[in-house]
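**User:** You know discrete backbone vocabularies at least as well as I do. Would you mind producing a protein record, from residues through to fold? Write it directly below this note and I will take it from there.

**Assistant:**
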Amino acid sequence: MQIHFGVELLQAEWPQAVICIGTFDGVHLGHRAVIQTAAKVAKEKELPLIVLTFDRHPAKVLNPGKAPQAVAPLSVNLKEFEKLGVGLVVVLPFNAWLSRMSAEDFLEQILRSKLRAGELVIGHDFALGNGREGTTEWLAERIATNVVEPFLVGEDRVSSSLVRASVQRGEVALAGRYLGRPFELHGFVVGGQKLGRTLGFPTANIARSMDQVLPTDGVYAATFECSRGCFKAALAIGTRPAVGGGPRSIEAFLLDYPGDSLYGEHIVLKLTDFVREEQNFASLDALVEQMHRDVDSVRALLSKANP
């Protein structure tokens, strides 16, 4: 899959293309339906398919104080596009200049002039241009436009907001249903206080590089992927009140890891199940007993998911 950041250096050697536009935060099942519809239209028209997306949520520029946390990093979104068979992705930097562009200018200067748009495929709630003036109706009057209806899981209309809210409540299994895959956290292994090691549960401390939505404090069943392989993990998120408290942290205990150092490793945590809320304990012995129970619960949950 080819990726262009911006359109300045894009050389469009095609007469027309089908353009699929959206922020696509997390590439959930609703997004997949939009992209799959675009791929079908492009195949029928014998035209290239281009996914046009942005490097950040528009609210990060338009209303930073109320901008939502990301469901997934851009790198994950791009990988999901590739899995869906997309051949070309154009990532626009959503900056102040782009936020002021009118819908008419966006249509003419970017979609038609730069990308050779002949037909659009968009979600039901999409709008472009300053003030969101380029609604689905506005676009349909000016260019062939396919509007994809909401995607339902049960009675729930799948959206990035719905995924985000599920994660924040700790309902990671439900978030995974909306995404069509487990919810992921990305980060790097960094040094910690090594308290887990003294208790017999050495953990990998995870530092993140972006404002990604985080589940509520508690213990989760997860898989831990790094360059050394994929391991079952009991993941703890919280302030660790049982050992004096502190800043919110993310720690993973790997159930069957051989013990080599992981410092500096980029890791992917795939959260599958909520185990329990974060608790305080009367003693370290009580904490260790609970950690043993947590590990048993995680092992059972992950073994059931991957027998």
In short: The longest helix spans residues 284-305. The chain has two domains: 2-157, 182-305.
